[in-house]
Amino acid sequence: MIFPFDNTFARLPVGFFASVLPSPVESPEFLQLNRKLAEELGLDLDRLASDEGLAILSGNAAAEGAEPLAMAYSGHQFGGFSPQLGDGRAILLGEVVGRDGRRDIQLKGAGPTPFSRRGDGRSALGPVLREYILSEAMAALGVPTTRALAAIATGEKVYRTGMEPGGVFTRVAQSHLRIGTFQWFAARQDEENLRILADYAIERHYPDARDSSNPYRTLLERVMERQADLVAHWMQFGFIHGVMNTDNMTISGETIDYGPCAFLDEYHPAKKFSSIDQHGRYAFGNQPTIAQWNLTRFAETLLPLLDEDADKAVSEAETALERFPDLHQTALQLRFTSKIGLGTDHAEHWPLVERLLAEMKTAEADFTLTFRHLTEALETGCDDPVTNQFPEEDGILSWLGDWRGKIGEEGKREALKRMKAANPVYIARNHRVEEVIQAGYQGNFAPFHLLNEVLQHPFDSEEKFQDFENAPQPDEVVEATFCGT
Ligand code: AMP
Ligand code: MG
Question: Could you identify the atom of ligand 1 that is nearest to the CA of residue 485?
Answer without folding.
Answer: 16
